[in-house]
Each structure stands twice: as C-alpha cells, then as structure tokens.
C-alpha cells in the first residue's frame, strides 16, 4: 500500500498508465479514496522509543515521527489544493509529479546561482535580485 502512496505523489501522465495512481489527479480519481483509507493508518502509527534513565530503568514512549506527520500534511494539502484550484481556476487535472521536491530544488538552485555559480552568496540576496 505504501508504494501506491508514493505513486499518488508521482503522477506524470494524463493517459491511462500501467499504475493507476501514476495518472493525473482528477475530480473522481482513485487517489482520494486511497488517501482517505491511508490517513487513519498513518495517524495511528507510532514508533517505540526506549531511553535508559539514570536510575537504570528504561522509559518507553511511542512517538509519531516527523516523516509520518509530513505525509499526513501532504495528503491534506493536496486534497485542499486540488479543491481550491478546481473551484477557483477550473483546473480539471493536476500532474502531482510537477509539485514535488525536485522542481523546487531546481528553482532555488537557479535563484541561488543567478546565472553563474556563486557559492558565497545567500539565497536572500538572489531572491531580491529576481524580484
């Protein structure tokens, strides 16, 4: 099921594809059903953390790690974002692959380099130059 979750955030085709979750996000796409099914599972997951105390006893906690909280947040953001884009701008489909970390990294890399390799400057300086 986790591989399907990754596929939902890596949709790159408007056409039918071998993997149904690698298609564009649309109003009635199966992405929403999978996300609704996975949200309770992700919210319930905890990891056992044991810590040895000074008195020799072991303290045990069950914590939700940041990566799980971020997956939950991403799912909720995509659901709300698609709803907003559909209602406000009449967007009928969205390629989820285009809204992931790689394009953002490339964008900020271009801002930082500002056309030439400049390793000593800050991103804020380049951001001001681009505005």
Automatic annotation (TrEMBL):
This is Uncharacterized protein.
């Amino acid at each position: 099921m986790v591989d399907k979750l990754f596929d939902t955030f890596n949709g790159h085709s408007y056409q039918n594809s071998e993997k149904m979750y690698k298609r564009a996000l649309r109003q009635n796409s199966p992405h929403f059903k999978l996300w609704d099914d996975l949200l309770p599972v992700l919210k319930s997951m905890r990891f056992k953390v044991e810590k040895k105390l000074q008195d020799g006893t072991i303290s045990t906690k069950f914590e939700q790690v940041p990566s799980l909280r971020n997956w939950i947040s991403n799912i909720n953001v995509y659901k709300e974002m698609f709803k907003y884009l559909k209602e406000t701008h009449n967007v009928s489909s969205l390629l989820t692959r285009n809204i992931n970390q790689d394009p953002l990294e490339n964008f900020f890399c271009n801002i930082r380099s500002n056309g030439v390799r400049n390793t000593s400057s800050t991103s804020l300086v380049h951001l001001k130059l681009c505005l």
